[in-house]
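Posted in: Protein Modeling Q&A

I'm a second-year student putting together a small comparison for a lab meeting, and my supervisor asked me to include a predicted structure for RNA polymerase sigma factor SigZ. I've never done this before, so apologies if this is the wrong subforum. The sequence is pasted below exactly as I got it from our records. If anyone can share the structure token output, I'd also love a short note on what stands out.
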Amino acid sequence: MDDKVKYIWNEFSSELYKYINGKVKNKCDAEDILQDIFVKIYKNIDKVDKQSKLKSWIYKITKNTIIDYYRKKKDITVDIEKLEKGLEEDNNSDNMNEEISKCLEKMIFELPKKYQEVIELYDMKGMKHKEISEKLHVTMSCSKMRVQRAKAKLKDILLECCDFEIDTYGNIIDYKQKKTNCQKCGNKCE
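Accepted answer (user: helix_wrangler)
Welcome! Here is the predicted structure, written out as tokens:
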């Protein structure tokens, strides 16, 4: 299996399963839909241009696969337009992920240079660890470790500044700055 698809499976499969199970209410069908989604992801992985758009791309596939499921089920009477609207509202819920993501992009510059480099290459440019290791003349495990440490440091910086309210899907639905004059984020997130 492609490394990118493995990453997506590890990061999103349980979250997607919970989401699907909430829409379908049949565990076997939810598992089948999840498998269909990952087949579509595997076949179309090259179509996603940026790492930052990955989650919305995955949820668009998920939404369409759930709709296809109901269209194929003739014995289930569901108003497809109502379902589409409901799924659309779920997908475009009032979360603050993008806003916080922009804030994190600014906080990257507070990281040591070696962590800034790998985060930019891995998360912003979508490079694989092999490519990063060749570009930076480090081992692949060093690249992976730096990405992991950079993310941990970013999380610490963010949690030092703000408290977050997170929904069951891991989306940030609200946040509050701990200090009004925080030097780390100040008004960056607003």
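A couple of things worth pointing out for your meeting: The beta strands are 162-166, 172-177. Residues 2 and 67 are 27 Å apart (CA to CA).
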